[in-house]
Amino acid sequence: DTAVSQTPKYLVTQMGNDKSIKCEQNLGHDTMYWYKQDSKKFLKIMFSYNNKELIINETVPNRFSPKSPDKAHLNLHINSLELGDSAVYFCASSQGRTGTGNTIYFGEGSWLTVV
Amino acid sequence: AQSVTQLGSHVSVSEGALVLLRCNYSSSVPPYLFWYVQYPNQGLQLLLKYTSAATLVKGINGFEAEFKKSETSFHLTKPSAHMSDAAEYFCAVSDKTSYDKVIFGPGTSLSVIP
């Protein structure tokens, strides 16, 4: 069983479209994240949820909207996609806050290409 | 605020040679330090982490790292490189002031030459 699973793995879409990426974790963790990895492999946190509550909301355009229906799921919806949104988006989870040294477990990534 | 630097965006070693990937961190309080590996087209996988127990940390696949507070370093080593070690390696830091923000370094791409 995959611990953190996200779908779709690959997504090619046109500018201006709206798309969603879904994420589920079966580790029983209470904290989930979205990270963005750009073409230079640089990883940056976008959002963090703890027990369905938004904890971190980095300076991300408000076209990006996360939704956490329960502790095991964290979806990412993106409106009006732009070329610059092309990246790999990673969902991740941890048990508790990472400020206490807890490990983050990553999904396999969703490769988004905007054309 | 925490930060991580990784010296060398690309490192090449011969198969069987020592692997040394460098990581230096900045943190105003005792840090938690991580090394993750990313194989092509995959997610990140934890190799090892330091959480203030032993300063020499052993991880998976024969990797280990040593926490040196005086040098603010957490370099990753492996005595003998294998072809399957070719991947991207990320050092990361968090601490009790960071909430849920784990700060990742820019990554080092490791190539293994047969």
Average predicted local confidence, pLDDT of chain B: 93
CA radius of gyration of chain A: 13 Å
Instruction: Indicate the radius of gyration of chain B in whole angstroms.
Output: 13 Å
Give the fraction of residues assigned to helices of chain A. Answer: under 10%
Our estimate of the beta-strand percent of chain A is over 45%
Describe the biggest sheet of chain B? 6 strands, mixed
Q: What profile does the largest beta sheet of chain A have? A: 7 strands, mixed
- Indicate the mean pLDDT of chain A: 92
Pattern of helices and strands of chain A:
EEEEEEEEEEE
User: What structural category characterises the helix and strand content of chain A?
Assistant: mainly beta
Number of strands of chain A: 11
Give the topology string of chain B: H per helix, E per strand.
EEEEEEEEEEEE
Strand content of chain B: over 45%
Assign an overall shape of chain B: globular
Shape of chain A: globular
| Structure classification of chain B | mainly beta
Instruction: Extract low-pLDDT stretches of chain A.
Output: none
Low-confidence stretches of chain B at least 5 residues in length (pLDDT < 50)? none
Helical content class of chain B = under 10%
